[in-house]
User: Fold these one by one.
Assistant:
Number 1:
Amino acid sequence: MRILVVEDEQRIADFVQRGLESAGYTVDVAEDGTKALERIHDSDYELMVLDLMLPDMDGLTVLEKTRARQASPPVLILSARGGVDDRVKGLEHGADDYLVKPFAFVELLARVRALLRRGQATPEKLVVGDLTLDCIRRKVTRGGDVIDLAPKEFSILEYLMRNRGRALSRTMIVEHVWEMEYDGLTNIVDVYIRHLRSKIDDRYPVKLIHTVRGIGYMLEGSERPVEQPIPA
Ligand code: CA
């Protein structure tokens, strides 16, 4: 799944790119309208995430020119302009959805998935050991037991499962699940991990969520020790 992110503000472009890549998508970034149109012309994208205020042209112009092509991907507009008029204008110009900045990454991911799903009905299910997470029905089971998770717990678990076997720092988890401007409160991650463990691990002999000392957390189904020794 290739996604084109058109965004001139590097911090946001990086944030969106990193997040979408860890959700398993291939992401290209274009920092202005001209580059965006070149990329759209040269390769096939399943989705375009489009900022409206670009240095060289209005995002709506990019949208119009993209829509003029025969095969044109769905477009999700990202904009600081959140007024009703702006949204309507974006949708009238052929955008498929509209997200106002600042936004939480989970919100963006949900919109991206919804737009990509329109094209093809691929059920998204993540499985690690006897733990299953159904991204569409938003249902989690372990060994056949249905487990109820709060939305943030679900998002953290999904992120861990998509990155199974990979240590994720608290900062990565915060940036992925909470508002992008969420600084200095990474210990909230520990609180949520504790809740998650009480629901998906405590009652089961094989523990799936592992603490990686000095880094953060990792989800792994195997029983090999995953905690890294810290050099003295
Ligand atoms: Ca901009």
Note: Residues 105-119 form the longest helix (15 residues).
Number 2:
Amino acid sequence: MTDVLRETALYIDGRWVPGGGSDLEVLDPATEEVTGVVTQASTDDVEAAVAAARAAFPAWAATPVPERAAVLRRVRDVVVERADVFAATVTRELGAPPKVARALHVDTPVAVIDATIDALERFAFTSEIGNSVVRREPVGVVAAITPWNLPLHQVVVKVVPALAAGATVVLKPAGLTPLAAFELARAFDDAGLPPGVFNLVSGSGRTVGDLLTRHPGVDQVSFTGSTPVGRQIAGVAAETLKRVTLELGGKSASVVLADADDELLATAVKITVANCFLNSGQTCTALSRLVVPADRLERVEELAAAAAAKYAPGTRLGPLVSAEQRKEVESYLDPASGGASAVTVFGGAALPERGWYVSPTVISRVEPDSRLAQEEVFGPVLAVLAATSDDEAVAIANNSIYGLGGAVWGADGEAALAVAARLQTGQVDVNGAAFNPGAPFGGYKQSGTGREIGEHGIADVCEIKAVQR
Ligand code: NAD
């Protein structure tokens, strides 16, 4: 029997207050048992949170940049001090294996906080064009609505740049994984963030999320989640003409060019498999399509199968977040989801008795228009597609309603960069380049609008004013 973590109060106006809604149970995906209970917000709680954020806005917006940076640095230090608690919380609510919980779910958001503080200290809040002073001013109250797949990171990438800009925030975390957000609220409180600058209201999307999206006291909705819900939020927010930032789904391609030698091909396959299976495939930028030269397909299949075999469910590979999510992912495990020509090159690994696990799976000879090539799986399922030329590889990569992440692998670095420029996607990593915690993050096409993280994340929550003199 797992111990149960109880979060009995929301964080509104710098105080912990019991929520007026019903309690919500949080399940541990590895044990399928209740591991947390959180209080949820009523309509009155949402009203109080928005009112607190509005009241706190003028003073926070007027707080000098060095002071805002100093508070954020204290927040960062508290998160680092409590890194073990954050990691254990993410393991509890998402089932992430401990190593993944620490590196992906805690160290990465800490790097994002550091990069945001750097960006804040360099940010051009004013610039000049002719006789105009162009001012970037924080938008006001930002409602942040976050998904379950990265319970701390998705909150940090929205909330920290907004606070840096001088905006105030009301956060509604995902119902499946709300616990890390409560821990973060404690970090804000302990770091001395002024009352009302950050507020936490948990609850369902249809109630609390919808209230925030409609609320006239909210100036911007910053949403990360699925494309259908993003579309709905954009429609509702349009009624009050709110600014909207949407970070949505993806079906990112990893493209191996014809000039890649055997060593680079092996690296490309290994890193693509690792990226696709990271967080049990539950990342929006997952390289879930591997596009390779047709004459190297058999070698790629061997390499991908060997790499996938190392992700044993229950040890290196965590569970999916819920029984529903597992059911959804299972519908892609049949190679028919990749079209008539598709074959499974790895699948059917042994699963632990408890927990919402699926086998890591590699399906090859996938047809570019098939369901598997077109739909976001959000599970550890890699589609391998063959291309007869680099041009065809680019066309396959761009044959998607999404455009969030991507990768290019090639022996000629300049040629690989030129291919990166042709991909219709918000981020591309060339030859395994490292994640940059200060780089703009966001999507082309139906992967969203707006950019998060670093100076672009700060700019995303600012209005622009031209003052002529
Ligand atoms: P979701 O769209 O179901 O929910 C996301 C959030 O929106 C949750 O907090 C939910 O409660 C809330 N919500 C739901 N309906 C709402 C409504 N009508 N009004 C207001 N809020 C509402 O997504 P999810 O299942 O939690 O997350 C998985 C999805 O998120 C995947 O599609 C994934 O690709 C996407 N994602 C995108 C990024 C990115 O940065 N682009 C990052 C991570 C996840």
Note: The radius of gyration is 22 Å.
